[in-house]
Write a structure and sequence with these properties.
This protein is an alpha/beta fold. It has seven helices and seven strands. A hairpin with a 4-residue loop joins strand 3 and strand 4. The chain is globular, with a radius of gyration of 18 Å.
Length: about 230
């Protein structure tokens, strides 16, 4: 995808896709990148902020939605927002309330930066997103570890019961992981095994990102101006 000129105060952004199963350690990798590169250099679009608005459904009906299927996400809106950031525009990212299974009326302003991270379990399963990525990462972790992490997260942060977490895992999380998430691994440039604490893999990824940033800076300097 060609990126339009017009970024007078910044070089062409590096787009990074960060995927992996629920509980794989994506957040650990993301926080590591933010810390190493600086939050002022990185914009983040989380795919799960783009779940479809479900205000027209009852709370009971919302709980029956398959949130692990690509159709549950408004990916086209995410693509429009990503393209806006590439054009140097500030976008308004949705805010999703996982305790109510509903998108809120609030938004978060996301400003264009040198690095844009597109994060989520299904981002490598969406061609429109993949086509815009320059680095595609997949965090790979054993299923039992991912399940334990998901139980802890959903019970502590989202007010779910153990029974509801296990029921959702059996009905949708596991089958959708096998059908879409695991299958999307083939699009990854780098597979990070053992979750988010693989220091060797992380350092290699970080070095690659810095190398690409430098290459982009050089390209901006030597690129002939349009006349």
């Amino acid at each position: 995808m060609a990126i339009k000129k017009g970024h007078s105060d910044m070089t062409r952004p590096v787009i990074i896709g960060l995927s992996g199963g629920s509980g794989s350690g994506k957040s650990t990798i993301l926080q590591g990148l933010l810390s190493a590169l600086g939050p002022d250099q990185v914009s983040v679009l989380e795919h799960d902020a783009y779940y479809h608005p479900l205000a027209h459904l009852s709370v009971e009906e919302r709980s029956e939605v398959n949130f692990d299927h690509p159709s549950s996400l408004e990916t086209k809106l995410m693509v429009r927002h990503l393209d806006g950031l590439l054009r140097g525009e500030t976008i308004q990212k949705p805010v999703y309330d996982f305790t109510r299974h509903a998108r809120t009326e609030q938004t978060i302003a996301v400003h264009p930066t040198r690095i844009i991270i597109v994060e989520g379990i299904l981002v490598l399963a969406e061609k429109e997103l993949v086509d815009r990525m320059e680095i595609k990462l997949f965090v790979d972790t054993d299923s039992d570890v991912r399940l334990i992490r998901r139980i802890n997260r959903d019970m502590v942060e989202r007010g779910r019961t153990l029974e509801s977490v296990l029921d959702q895992y059996a009905k949708t999380v596991r089958p959708m992981h096998l059908e879409f998430v695991e299958a999307s691994k083939r699009h990854a440039d780098v597979i990070i095994p053992r979750g988010g604490h693989n220091d060797v893999a992380f350092d290699m990824v970080l070095a690659r990102i810095r190398s690409m940033l430098y290459a982009h800076q050089i390209a901006e300097v030597i690129e002939p101006s349009a006349s």
